[in-house]
UniProtKB/TrEMBL annotation:
Co-factor requirement: [4Fe-4S] cluster
SUPFAM superfamilies: ATPase domain of HSP90 chaperone/DNA topoisomerase II/histidine kinase (SSF55874)
Name assigned to this protein: Oxygen sensor histidine kinase NreB
Function: Member of the two-component regulatory system NreB/NreC involved in the control of dissimilatory nitrate/nitrite reduction in response to oxygen. NreB functions as a direct oxygen sensor histidine kinase which is autophosphorylated, in the absence of oxygen, probably at the conserved histidine residue, and transfers its phosphate group probably to a conserved aspartate residue of NreC. NreB/NreC activates the expression of the nitrate (narGHJI) and nitrite (nir) reductase operons, as well as the putative nitrate transporter gene narT.
Catalyzed reaction equations: ATP + protein L-histidine = ADP + protein N-phospho-L-histidine
Annotated transmembrane regions: 21-41, 47-64, 95-115, 135-154, 161-179
Database matches in PROSITE patterns: HIS_KIN (PS50109)
Amino acid sequence: MARSRPSAPGGAPAAGRDRRWLALVIHLTFFLLLGAALVRYVQRHGAALPVLALAGALALLYGFGPALGRLPATGPPAAVGAPPDAVRRPSARHLLWLGVLVVVWAALVALAPSFSWCAVPLFYTALRTLPPPAAYGLVAFFTGFVVLAQLRLAARFDLDLVVGPPAVAALALAVFTSMDRQSARQAVLIHDLARTHRELAATERRAGTLAERQRLAVEIHDSLAQGLSSQQMLLQAADRLWDADPRQARAHVRAATSIAERSLAEARRFVHDLAPADLAEGGGLEAALQRLASRESTAERSVHCRVDDAVGAPALPGHVQSALLRIAQGALANVREHSGASRAALTLSHLGDQVRLDIADNGRGFDTAASHGPWQHARGHGLPAIRARVRQVGGALTVESAPGDGTVVSVSVPLHPASAKADTP
């Protein structure tokens, strides 16, 4: 009977097939030896009823063994070098079955010593059923009984009969112990591999959760937060101008209302599928950039958008269009809030196997070598958010600026990911 082993994905099916195959070979060997011994006895001594009855009982008992089921699982060994199943605990029915089997075999061998060869398959039955000390003791009993039976059967003393059975028993013990220890080591490795797989999956889930949080933070910053910031600025300007210039103040209020409508659409789209609302209105990225430039143009600042419609240029994937639009939104938000520019320009162009987006302004600029600047302000995402989006689509980012000379942000995204480049400082 085969013992149960700890299972793990990938290793359990193969180990189960090996156990079944080995058990089948041992069972066939037992019945083949039992049948050969019975035929030999009948040919030499005739059909003696006690021998026939004991042989039939032994065959029935041995065949009944698999019906008892596997031994209770004891779990994997504590370490690779630990003895296999050192705490094997057979049930009472297994012990009763094995005891009756040994008694019937001993009685049969006492009557007909030629049946002693059936002890070899019984070695493995004992080793697979009992704890190691008890199993080794039962194997020693089998071996001694076989030696006595063979000596009684022989006409004279033969040294081979004394040496042969112990040598066979030692070989069987060595083979079984080696296989069992190897199986135990494999069980430990499979157990460790399954645990490592679970830990890796948990780590990947945590990393995915953190990445999703970062993505959501950038999405909120590039949509809702920017809209709310624009509304705040316009309403503050309207409040200052309400008495001095009511007409201009109402214009600011109307602009804030328009931005609020856009923010509401963004919020609904954000909840639905996190796609930019401008892209959902149709026309692709080019039309979305035109609408963005139109909204960002005010009396204080004009935003011009130019799209280089290259003939035969392939359509951009949806995630690339979304990323480029968010980058343009984030860049123009920084222009509006920090640059003090009176003009800004968006340029979308197709250059061979790349698409390029440039955002330029004539604002105050900043020192790109500084750790903080108008594009890297502490209270928002700024340039880090743009850089993160560029990395997500495998593109390259270039920022050119100097104090008093404005700023140019260039993003190039390869149409084929294999040609992606690193960020350029």
